[in-house]
Backbone:
């Protein structure tokens, strides 16, 4: 009996070592191929000049991504979208699908909206060594058979005006990424759509859900899921402007709002809220990427905490108006909604998300709200995955989960 037990232990250990070795080999392959791809990325992100007009979601160009996770096929895409004013722009992103036969009726598309990476073009997730790193729930979604479309947002990847915390252009790019996935040969993507976003991406996903029926009526939106969403920008700015995170967020948002609202407000009116030191520092911070240049951002932002703005943006015009315009909740959402929130979140504080869920309930929305004790902002999406996958499966079969309300 002991010999048999010992053999069983040895078998388990051997299997474990094989799995670890395979993971290591896969990681080495993806890093090597990702590094090789980075050397040839730049020309892909330069759209034709002039950009020939085309319908939103039309693909400008695409190319396979060799570093796709094992068992999947992926493409880098450049596609048409629309900015705040409705102008035709080029946006970049990635599309990834599981290998294997396409099911009857095609694959449901999950359009993913990433959390903040920065506001400069080179901060695009698709430009990273691992262009799939920020797609939270990637492996679970692929295993469940979904096609994934992941936009970079306007201004990331392709040079152009930043769309940071601008609900309309962010959501346009998210819906148009799903259109691009359908247009791309070999994806098997259907017209069924699910939206999934974290933090900044939560704002984008909620705006996309509010606007999908008017902007992309050919897509059959089934549900929207968000984790620690930047739903209420007035509350977000008021809560965070006194700390390092708020200073960084504001430095990314100010140049984006200057460009987007130039027809309504002068640069001086937008910038009037900044202290002289804040005004001087903003272009420097806005040129940096959050995940790869955190040390450099902190070096600039740390001395400005408490001295970046001269008044609260939430109560100061034109910021009060602009933040309200870019907060979710202006239109009702008529599909099921999933909300995940970490209770240790110090960026999107739990009470703000609680208030947003109350707003959804007042609008008689079908919302499921999950709270995760001890979970911080960065981990909110990962913590949501087990519940999210159950919810997605239910929604994708046409059911409407019981509402928290």
Residues:
């Amino acid at each position: 009996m002991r010999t048999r037990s010992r053999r069983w232990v040895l078998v388990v250990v051997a299997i474990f070592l094989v799995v670890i070795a395979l993971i290591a080999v896969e990681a080495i392959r993806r890093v090597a191929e990702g590094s090789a791809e980075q050397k040839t990325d730049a020309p892909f992100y330069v759209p034709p000049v002039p950009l020939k007009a085309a319908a939103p979601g039309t693909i400008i160009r695409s190319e396979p991504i060799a570093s796709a996770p094992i068992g999947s096929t992926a493409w880098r895409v450049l596609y048409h979208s629309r900015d705040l004013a409705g102008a035709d722009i080029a946006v970049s992103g990635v599309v990834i699908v599981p290998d294997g036969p396409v099911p009857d009726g095609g694959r449901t598309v999950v359009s993913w909206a990433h959390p903040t990476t920065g506001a400069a073009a080179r901060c695009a997730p698709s430009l990273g060594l691992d262009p799939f790193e920020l797609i939270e729930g990637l492996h679970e979604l692929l295993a469940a058979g979904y096609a994934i479309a992941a936009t970079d947002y306007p201004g990331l990847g392709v040079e152009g005006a930043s769309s940071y915390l601008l609900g309309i252009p962010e959501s346009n790019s998210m819906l148009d990424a799903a259109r691009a996935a359908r247009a791309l040969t070999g994806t098997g993507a259907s017209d069924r759509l699910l939206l999934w976003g974290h933090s900044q991406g939560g704002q984008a996903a909620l705006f996309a859900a509010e606007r999908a029926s008017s902007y992309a009526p050919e897509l059959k939106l089934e549900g929207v899921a968000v984790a620690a969403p930047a739903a209420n920008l007035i509350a977000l700015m008021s809560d965070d402007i006194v700390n390092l995170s708020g200073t960084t967020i504001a430095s990314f948002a100010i140049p984006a709002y200057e460009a987007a609202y130039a027809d309504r407000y002068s640069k001086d009116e937008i910038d009037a809220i900044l202290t002289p030191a804040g005004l001087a520092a903003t272009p420097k911070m806005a040129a940096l990427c959050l995940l790869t240049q955190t040390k450099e951002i902190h070096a600039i932002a740390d001395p400005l905490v408490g001295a970046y703005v001269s008044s609260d943006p939430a109560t100061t015009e034109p910021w009060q108006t602009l933040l309200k315009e870019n907060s979710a909740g202006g239109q009702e959402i008529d599909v099921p909604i999933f909300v995940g929130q970490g209770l240790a979140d110090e960026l999107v504080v739990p009470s703000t998300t609680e208030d947003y869920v109350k707003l959804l309930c007042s609008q008689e929305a079908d919302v499921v709200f999950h709270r995760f004790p001890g979970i911080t902002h960065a981990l909110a999406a990962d913590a949501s995955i087990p519940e999210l996958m159950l919810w997605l499966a239910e929604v994708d079969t046409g059911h409407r989960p019981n509402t928290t309300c």
Notes: The first strand starts at residue 59 and ends at 64. Residues 233-324 form one domain.
